[in-house]
Design brief:
This protein has 124 residues and is an alpha+beta fold. Helices cover 15% and strands 33% of the residues. It has two domains: 72 residues, no CATH class; 37 residues, no CATH class. The relative contact order is 0.13.
């Protein structure tokens, strides 16, 4: 089964539908004309072999990059045009402790340490 995303005039994903394998080569035409759904349809892939990411509602489609772009998590984050992932202005301090990005202070905030997390698991 092939998956196709419908995008609006602003290139925002509205929905993702499945077409039968035998219609994959003409999936956009199949959805728009044969099924009478109209709209603009772009193929997407669960394993991200095409268009960088599997399309999801609210994501955008960039024609120049030929990629589905996730929703920008914070205003300060920058799009990596090679991977089409949003990148924080500062690298994550480490990958052991749990941090969240704080847009107000433009930095990572420690939520809890790895040791604290392990301690909570042992108590439950």
């Amino acid at each position: 089964m092939a998956h196709f995303a419908e995008i609006n005039k602003n290139k925002i994903v509205l929905r993702v539908l499945v077409v039968p394998d035998e219609q994959e080569s003409r999936g956009a035409e199949y959805l728009a004309n044969d099924l009478g759904l109209g709209g603009q349809w772009i193929q997407t892939s669960f394993n991200s072999t095409i268009r960088k990411h599997y399309a999801g509602i609210g994501m955008s489609y960039d024609l120049t990059l030929d990629a589905f772009i996730p929703i920008k998590p914070f205003d300060s984050w920058i799009l990596n045009e090679e991977t089409c992932d949003w990148i924080a202005p500062l690298p994550l301090p480490n990958d052991i402790d749990y941090f969240e990005w704080n847009e107000t202070i433009q930095n990572w905030e420690l939520i809890f340490t790895y040791d604290e997390m392990q301690s909570k698991k042992q108590k439950s």
